[in-house]
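Risk register update: the risk that structure generation would not scale has been downgraded. Supporting records follow, first protein first.
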Amino acid sequence: MTAADAHWQTALDWIMLQQQGELTPERQAQLAAWLRADPAHRQAYDEANRVWLITGLIPPST
């Protein structure tokens, strides 16, 4: 697994926690620290968030 893959997976984990309403104040602080720790974290988070939003806008095929 590359660093980019690891960043993507971590970002997706944060997005899922956020969407499930499971970001406690402590987790929000951890997310903020993770985002500040490396510009690649922010980039992965923004990309994962865009993908999450786009896939939510696409109606399921029937």
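Supporting record for the second protein:
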Amino acid sequence: ETVAAHYKVSSPAHRSYADCEACNACYQALLSDAVSQYGDFDGFKASYSSHQLHAKDITATTDNFDISHPLYGKLCVFTGTLEKMQRKDAMQLVVNLGGQCGDNVTAKTNYLILGNNDFCSLIKDGKSNKQKKAESLILKGKDIQILSENVFYDLVLNQ
């Protein structure tokens, strides 16, 4: 019903044929969105493949860095789902500014960027394990800044 409402597909009264029609209409709308965003269905599938994104896989596409940028030489870690872009693209922004990305929060982390955790069933108290680890390290005196997604975008896009 949620997907049908999003795509303005009439929600049937739970009759098998009408349910099938509504399901197909939702599928076609989802497919259209996937093709418009990823070029084709294979591109969509590849973006959600079982290959997990690792920070070490992201390399700079430039060597012209602004050494005065706040992210230059800094280690950034992301947690949660970003709402404005894919994590890979956000990580690319960081490394193209001369920063580094990590997969886990450590004592060397400078910034933890918080995405949305609302849809993660493993999170019970609103905080990811990465956020809990960063907060613990901060209490121990480590200089880690926790940034919201919007503050991150202001930092990388408006400098």
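The longest strand covers residues 75-79. On this basis the risk owner (M.S.) recommends closing the item.
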